[in-house]
Design brief:
By secondary structure, the chain is of the alpha/beta class. It has helices at residues 2-7, 84-92, 109-117, 127-135, 168-178, and strands at 32-37, 45-58, 76-79, 104-106, 122-126, 140-142, 147-156. Strands 1, 2, 3, 4, 5, 6 and 7 form a 7-stranded mixed sheet that branches.
């Protein structure tokens, strides 16, 4: 966000991550981004990006990854609400988990990436998140080819006054560029 804030030093941004939205939480928002199925056609949604998923290991890990089967030999880290990432990735390679071995579960991709970097196992995450983590120096590596997630990020178009929020359209333009 620093790129946007550098160009708009008077703008105020409040970032709220509502992973599991509570129906009683009715805070008004100016910009809302969601991850939804690709066939989730609604007139108020603007496609930002189709997503893919990739497996990740710690970059200092002793694990060797040569093929997708190798994922089955390491502790999986699951992300609540995204358990289908593992199923989708394994299914794309005609694989099934071999046993209900111990697993770690967290509620965010960010925490899963941190756990992988700490050497606690491997995870399957959205490719853009994995690439960003690598770019920012996280100690992870992408170890397999991407698989289509079947979901996309969308910008929700809301009714609002741009007069009251002069930077809103510029922020949305900046946001589109990030995807």
């Amino acid at each position: 966000m620093d790129g946007f804030l550098n160009s708009h030093p008077d703008a105020c941004i409040k970032l709220v991550t509502s992973i599991w939205k509570n129906p009683s939480d009715q805070h008004p928002v100016d910009v809302d981004v969601i991850l939804a199925p690709k066939d989730h056609a609604r007139s108020d949604l603007e496609l930002l990006s189709d997503e893919t998923i990739v497996p990740i290991f710690g970059s200092t890990s002793e694990y060797e990854f040569e093929c997708p089967d190798d994922l089955l030999d390491h502790p999986p880290i699951h992300i609540t609400g995204f358990d289908d990432h593992w199923a989708r990735y394994l299914s794309a390679h005609n694989l099934k988990p071999t046993s209900p071995r111990g697993r770690l579960t967290t509620d965010t991709s960010t925490a899963a990436i941190e756990m992988v970097a700490a050497g606690l196992g491997c995870a399957v995450v959205i490719e853009r998140f994995a690439k960003q983590a690598v770019t920012t120096g996280q100690r992870i590596q992408i170890v397999g080819n991407p698989v289509t997630l079947g979901q996309s990020h969308y910008l929700i178009r809301t009714e609002r006054s741009t007069k009251a929020r002069p930077y809103l359209e510029e922020f949305e333009t900046w946001l589109r560029q990030q995807f």
